[in-house]
Design goal:
Layout (H helix, E strand, L loop, with lengths): L1 E3 L23 H12 L1 H18 L3 H50 L4 E4 L5 E4 L1 H7 L27 E8 L2 E11 L7 H4 L6 E9 L1 H12 L2 E8 L2 H6 L3 H20 L4 E6 L2 E7 H9 L4 H4 L13 E6 L5 H17 L4 E5 L4 E5 L11 H15 L3 E5 L6 H16 L3 E5 L5 H7 L13 E2 L1 H7 L4 E6 L10 H6 L2 E6 L13 E4 L6 H12 L7 H14 L9 H12 L4 H7 L4 H12 L2 E3 L3 E6 L7 H12 L7 E8 L2 E8 L5 H6 L4 E2 L3 E7 L3 H17 L6
Parallel strand pairs: 10-11, 13-14, 13-16, 14-15, 16-17, 17-18, 20-21
Antiparallel strand pairs: 1-4, 2-3, 2-6, 4-5, 5-6, 7-9, 7-10, 8-9, 11-12, 19-20, 21-22, 22-24, 23-24
Helix pairs in contact: 2-3, 12-17, 13-17, 13-18, 17-18, 17-19, 18-19, 18-20, 21-22
Length: 707
């Protein structure tokens, strides 16, 4: 809705606002009498002149005065009779003229091509012309509120005082601009032919200006605007290595042909800029068509097979609605980075207002090479060496993985002889026992662990903050610290979402990794040859891997076991770690209850609730229950609702057939392809269950989940 005080140069003519009918105001009778007096004004002035002349003659001759007086009396009588007789005739003629004028005015308003209506202050239709009747498809006698036929025209948008308001309106596929002005009902007095009854107070004058042609023209220009796309082959080197030498060229040619045909079919331009990268130029309207088809190329390119052992996957990023072509290209680069950061095999469309994800059904491909880890480790070393103090933090309500990764970074910083602090807010049950390994330990400073408030007091201009196990600013332990540190490092294994930490000096996000502790364990090995983990540090990092992989069951790859082996060599004790994560009987029973009362929805989805009463860490128990539900034959995904601190925490798990991260993103959450979660405020467990079911139904209907 757009409000305007001053009249627009293109607004409808004033005669259509009901303000020109001034003769029918409350003073119309006085004005008509004024017209009669003005008509006889000359005769009146002449009569006064005759009487003055007669009195002047009195001084000359009495007999002449008598004659002049007789003439004046005769003139006065004749003109008086004429005045009174003519006034009635004149009034009758003026009344007739006024009626004819209003009849003509009403006819013009009724038959005017512009839809026009008059409403009372509550929005009820008092009168409308033929064009307005046709626009809203209602008869002349329709006196309901206008919001019944035009929902956007409620009392909230009605104008106040004499201000004019513009409101966009859609009616039967046509676009209008509703112009509304509040005027006094006094202007309408005497126009009972319009309403059939008297009106007092104020009314709303409404007329609709057809904007369909302008909207279509704007839409056409918008459809023809330029969109930029970048296509990256996720696993180019890995696929090529599995193909015989003589077939490599054929495989590359088939991929190129698949991509070029896909873009040519929508009248776009595709150019290969590197061996595994393509630049695409297309119209915005064509991009809309690709969205409707959910980017079929993501599935089509997987069918290219010349003997390769693994399927080819693409990551696509599109930039649209930028102010310049360069901005669209920058959007496309950011979008494809998001797609890669989320594990690849998906398309991301970025505009100034929004980021939309498509695809992402495949599991991430683990990279066998550690080149990237070595490069990131060296970059991290240089950043830490250039800073005076290092702050390390994970996500709110920390878990063993975030704390273990923080401990690994702490050891790197201390080995490089830099002051380091780990920021922890709420000490959750899941890390209390691990924290016991470090508290009252003489090997660690008293400020080894600090709070967010302490960190804000200690931060300096030459400080560095390392964020582990999270890439969303709002979910970090101290979001304010991100704005106070010039150097930011992000190490995470979760898929990047819409809100990511921007301006990071170093960002290392690998969704294929099982845990943040696995990533940090690799970085430790490449940062400096002199780094030696202590036993309690190795236990903390090993415990993080154990928890996030559910004892090496979920997402455990070759590099996961290599990281675990490194930690074992560094002093991690399997038995000691296992004792750290033993649970109380009440927690074991709560998890068993959650599993036993699970509902099997659509034969493939297990949904249950976990009671948080008496539990030290209800959300952890709920997550464990979700993991156990996957052991049921035929279950593709599991969801457990846990009520804690007035919120509903949803733990979502899957093995390989359902992308629970995409499912949780529909509910405002996120995570991994097979391990995700979400939170719901002001909701009950039943409402959360219905919300999950609704999303499952929607994704099945749209083809994102196969039954």
């Amino acid at each position: 809705m757009e409000k305007t005080v001053k009249a627009d140069p293109q607004e409808p003519a004033p005669q259509n606002t009901g303000q020109k009918a001034e003769p029918e105001g409350p003073s119309a009778g006085k004005k008509r009498r004024g017209y009669v007096f003005r008509f006889f004004r000359i005769a009146l002035i002449l009569g006064i002149v005759l009487w003055v002349t007669a009195f002047l003659i009195l001084f000359l001759d009495v007999h002449s005065f008598m004659a002049a007086t007789s003439v004046c009396l005769l003139y006065t009588i004749v003109m008086g009779l004429a005045f009174f007789n003519s006034r009635a005739i004149f009034r009758k003629e003026m009344t007739g003229y006024t009626k004819e004028f209003h009849s003509l005015e009403n006819l013009l308003l009724r038959e005017h091509s512009m839809p026009y209506a008059i409403l009372d202050e509550d929005g009820h239709i008092l009168w409308m012309n033929t064009s307005f009747q046709e626009a809203i498809h209602r008869d002349h006698g329709y006196e309901r509120p206008v919001s019944w036929v035009i929902p956007v025209l409620t009392r909230d948008v009605f104008p106040g005082d004499e201000k004019q308001v513009k409101v966009p309106v859609e009616l039967a596929g046509n676009s209008y601009i509703a112009w509304m002005r509040r005027v006094s009902a006094d202007y309408l007095t005497g126009s009972s032919q319009l309403f059939g009854e008297s009106v007092s107070g104020h009314v709303i004058v409404l007329n609709l200006v057809d904007n369909t042609a302008a909207r279509l023209a704007i839409q056409e220009v918008d459809d023809q605007s330029l969109a930029i796309g970048l296509f990256y082959i996720d696993n180019y080197d890995e696929v090529i290595d599995t193909v015989e030498e003589v077939r490599k060229v054929l495989l590359i040619a088939l991929i190129d042909r698949q991509v070029n045909q896909y873009i040519s079919a929508i009248d776009g331009i595709c150019s290969k800029i590197e061996k595994d990268k393509y630049l695409v130029v297309l119209r915005k309207k064509s991009l809309s068509g690709l969205k409707e088809d959910h980017f079929e190329i993501l599935e089509e390119v997987k069918k290219v097979n010349v003997g390769n052992e693994m399927a080819v996957t693409l990551s696509m990023g599109f930039g649209v609605d930028g102010l310049t072509y360069a901005q669209n290209y920058e959007f496309a680069r950011n979008a494809v980075d998001l797609a890669l950061g989320r594990g690849g095999d998906q398309a991301v469309v970025k505009s100034p207002e929004n980021v939309v994800y498509y695809g992402g059904k495949s599991r991430q491909i683990e990279k066998n090479t550690r080149v990237k880890a070595r490069v990131k480790a060296q970059a991290l070393k240089e950043i830490i060496l250039a800073r005076d103090v290092v702050f390390i933090m994970g996500h709110k309500m920390g878990d063993p993985d975030s704390f273990g990764a923080a401990v690994g970074i702490y050891r790197i910083a201390r080995t490089l002889e830099k002051k380091a602090h780990i920021i922890i807010g709420e000490r959750t049950v899941s890390i209390i026992q691990i924290l016991g390994l470090f508290e009252d330990n003489p090997e660690y400073d008293k400020d080894f662990i600090i709070t967010s408030a302490q960190a804000m007091e200690m931060v300096t201009d030459n400080a560095c903050v390392v964020v582990v196990d999270v890439n969303t600013p709002a979910r970090t332990e101290c979001p304010e610290l991100l704005t106070n540190c010039k150097s930011i490092v992000v190490l995470d294994h979760h898929r990047a979402g819409k809100d990511v930490i921007e301006g990071a000096t170093l960002s290392y996000v690998e969704p294929y990794a099982s845990s943040a502790c696995e990533m940090v364990a690799e970085i430790v090995q490449y940062t400096d040859d002199n780094i030696r983990l202590r036993a309690e540090e190795a236990d903390a990092m090993y415990g993080g891997i154990v928890v996030d992989t559910d004892s090496f069951v979920n997402k455990a790859g070759v590099r996961t076991f290599e990281a675990a082996a490194f930690l074992r060599r560094s002093g991690a004790d399997v038995v000691r770690v296992r004792k750290l994560f033993r649970e109380e009987a009440v927690e074991y029973k709560a998890r068993a209850d959650a599993v036993s009362q699970a509902e099997i929805y659509r034969k493939s989805f297990a949904i249950s609730t976990c009671s948080g009463e008496g539990l030290r860490s209800p959300t952890v128990v709920g997550a464990q229950a979700a993991n156990q539900l996957l052991n049921i034959d035929g279950i593709k995904a599991s969801f457990v609702m846990t009520k804690h601190n007035g919120k509903i925490f949803i733990s979502a798990r899957s093995i390989d057939e359902v992308n629970v991260q995409v499912l949780m993103e529909h509910l405002g959450g996120g995570g991994h392809i097979n391990m995700a979660g979400s939170q719901m405020d002001d909701a009950t467990e039943e409402q959360a269950i219905e919300a999950v079911k609704k999303v499952i139904d929607q994704m099945i209907e749209e083809g994102e989940i196969e039954e």
